Amino acid sequence: MYTKEETIIAVDIDDFKKYKEEMQGEYVDYVDDNVIVARNIDNLPNSNRMIRLNLFIIVTCIEGKMQLTVNGKDYQLQEGETFICLPTMIVSNMLLSPQHKVGMIGFSTKFLQQTIKRGRATEKALYYIYKNPVFAKASEEKTKNSRTFSQYSQLIMDKISDTSHRYRQEILEHLFSALFYEMLVGIQKHSDTIEETGMEADRSKRIFKQFMEEVAEDGGIHRSVSHYADRLCYSPKYISSAIKEVSGRTPTEWINEYAIEQIKYQLKHSDKSVKEIAEMFNFPNQSFFGKYVKAHVGMSPARYRAYSNGKAQSDSQTAS
């Protein structure tokens, strides 16, 4: 199990794009703003570190074995088995056997929102994935799973190489969507056995935990519910309902509380000007920043800085 002291590295599509450029495509076959394809996952970005993947990833072990830790629990993939990683899952300790062949396809949260039709069946499938990220199947299923993944991978690579017409991107997007739904087909018969009792409450708790982790990491820079909904791959309405159910507070209340604490800290302890702090927290201008602080603190940024620094000096003199 990981500890708070260990550093967790966030990895998203942009990291794979940068890595492909640095390695001249040696390990990553294809990457755009929404999708990554890799037929070799050796030496992928920060693979020897504890990473939080901000994308949806399907990894199939075609030959050999693969070992990894997901959210603090150890798993091993055999030939024909699949690991599915939801956005914000934490992965570490990834090891591959000497003779291995592993394929990977990843999707951005934006792509999934455009592709997935949210419904009860899909929600149950995603819940099942969260509880069971590695699928150990019977021999017949393993063979079929490996064959399906290989067929799609080969077709996708053929279409990636074909730049002779203008519909290449559209064809790829539909192939990626088809592969995603092929994956859901394999999961559905397992997820259909899930008892609905307690599933919603458990999922709401998980969403709340992930939301608070995202808010803490963001540091108050983004203050819209839609930003965090995108990160977690849910609609703003759904995430608002889940967080309200668990905490009794709205996402906006949590976001503003954390942002204000970060802003107050900067005003009190940093040498940055009010304008610099406004820019640091991604406000469009200093005036908007001032109104935001006054609405939540009851005074302007400059007045709060003077007040807090004066209070600190007074406390220091009293203590001495």
Total number of helical segments? 12
Span of the ends, CA to CA: 45 Å
The CATH architecture name of the largest domain reads Sandwich
Largest sheet: 6 strands, antiparallel
- Low-confidence sequence ranges: 1-5, 315-320
Task: List the keywords.
single chain; 320 residues; alpha+beta; 54% helix; 16% strand; disordered N terminus
Describe, in plain words, how this protein is organized in 3D.
- Mean pLDDT is 80; it is low at 1-5 and 315-320.
- A hairpin with a 2-residue loop joins strand 6 (66-70) and strand 7.
- Helix content is 54%, strand content 16%.
- The chain folds into two domains: 9-191, Sandwich (Jelly Rolls), CATH 2.60.120; 199-319, Arc Repressor Mutant, subunit A (Orthogonal Bundle).
- It is elongated.
- It contains twelve helices and eleven strands.
- Helix 9 packs across helix 12.
- Strands 2-3-10-5-8-11 form a six-stranded antiparallel β-sheet, sandwiched between helices. A five-stranded mixed β-sheet has the order 1-4-9-6-7.
- The protein is of the alpha+beta class and 320 residues long.
- It has helices spanning 13-23, 109-115, 120-131, 139-161, 168-191, 199-218, 225-232, 236-247, 251-269, 274-280, 286-297, 301-319, and strands at 9-11, 30-31, 35-38, 51-53, 56-63, 66-70, 73-77, 82-85, 90-96, 101-107, 134-135.
- It starts with 8 loop residues before the first strand and ends with a helix.
